[in-house]
């Protein structure tokens, strides 16, 4: 799933709904690609944390984040210690394929 623009308190519910719709199809893995996000607010970060906490063991989950807008806040908060975080989509695809 590719996300673009701002992920803030207004758009975070849309992201949560999109993730829920994707997970309803019972995929083996889910990648949320934030490469085109120009603002990642706390509401968006909360959606990612909630998804990681609720996804279960049967579905692999990875977030693609690169740059100061996405990667930096996620690593400063230590989220990279609790969920799979990659800088490039190719890295995320490889990581999920290897899991």
UniProtKB/TrEMBL annotation:
Coiled coil: none
Domain of life of the native organism: Bacteria
InterPro entries linked: STAS_dom, STAS_dom_sf
Single GO MF annotation: anti-sigma factor antagonist activity
Domain STAS: from-to ranges: 1-96
Pfam family, one: STAS
This protein's name: STAS domain-containing protein
Organism field: Mycobacterium fragae
């Amino acid at each position: 799933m590719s996300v673009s623009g701002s992920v803030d308190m207004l758009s975070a519910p849309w992201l949560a709904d999109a993730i829920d719709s994707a997970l309803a199809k019972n995929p083996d893995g889910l990648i949320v690609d934030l490469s085109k996000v120009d603002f990642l607010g706390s509401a968006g970060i909360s959606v990612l944390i909630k998804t990681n906490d609720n996804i279960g063991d049967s579905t692999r989950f990875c977030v693609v984040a690169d740059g100061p807008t996405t990667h930096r806040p996620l690593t400063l908060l230590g989220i990279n210690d609790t969920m799979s975080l990659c800088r490039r989509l190719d890295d995320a695809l490889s990581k999920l394929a290897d899991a």
